[in-house]
Amino acid sequence: MNVEYINAFVKASTEVLNNFVTEKFSVGKPTIRTNPFPTKEIVIMLGITGEIKGQAVFSLSEEMAKTIASGMMMGMPVPEIDEMAKSALSELGNMIMGNSATLLFNQGVQIDITPPTLVRGNSIEISAAGMETILVPLVSSVGEVEFDIGIKKG
């Protein structure tokens, strides 16, 4: 995997998250995942097509999801993950991937993204068939977002 491509996704992720959460996110130590890999309770998945192909998976606890959704809704309390919160979290995925696409375009790489899929539950496992996946923890004092990215040249 091209590190410059991965860095574009990571940069977009931290920038977008930092727009909505008062406690700033930083990048933890990346590690290679084995398939299938476990997730937290809320998972946002988006596909990547174009000159590079793959998937982006954002995994977060329900409490972290509530915090982010609240920030995206201008501080409105989010006591539960309802349809409005799910919509906000899906839009978070769109915003991150849209910013990633712009950063990659500036590097001469064109991608498209699929609409986000939000999954909620316990003991969810994700498998990126035929692709190495890198876990990049996005860490703040209020919680963590696990960002898994698996890409290959199209």
Structure description:
By secondary structure, this protein is α+β, with helices and mostly antiparallel strands. The chain has a single domain (3-153), classed as Chemotaxis protein chec, CATH 3.40.1550. Helices cover 34% and strands 34% of the residues. The strands form 2 sheets. Strands 1, 2, 4, 5, 6, 7, 9 and 10 form an 8-stranded antiparallel beta sheet that branches. It has a two-stranded antiparallel ribbon with strand order 3-8. A hairpin with a 2-residue loop joins strand 9 and strand 10. The longest helix is centred in the middle third of the chain and has 23 residues, at 83-105. The mean pLDDT is 94.
Q: Percent of residues in helical segments?
A: 25-40%
Q: Roughly what is the average pLDDT, rounded to an integer?
A: 94
**Number of beta-strand segments:** 10
Number of domains: 1
Q: Find the CATH superfamily.
A: CheC-like
Q: Distance N terminus to C terminus? A: 12 Å
Name the beta content range: 25-35%
Radius of gyration: 14 Å
Note the main sheet. Answer: 8 strands, antiparallel
| CATH structural class | Alpha Beta
Name the overall outline: globular
Broad structural category: alpha+beta
Q: Which stretches of 5+ consecutive residues score pLDDT under 50? A: none
CATH topological fold name? Chemotaxis protein chec
Question: What's the short version?
Answer:
The chain has 154 residues and is α+β, with helices and mostly antiparallel strands.
Secondary-structure map with pairings?
Layout: H1 3-20, E1 26-27, E2 31-33, E3 37-38, E4 42-50, E5 52-60, H2 62-72, H3 83-105, E6 111-113, E7 117-120, E8 125-126, E9 133-140, E10 143-153
Antiparallel strand pairs: 1-9, 2-9, 3-8, 4-5, 4-6, 4-7, 5-10, 9-10
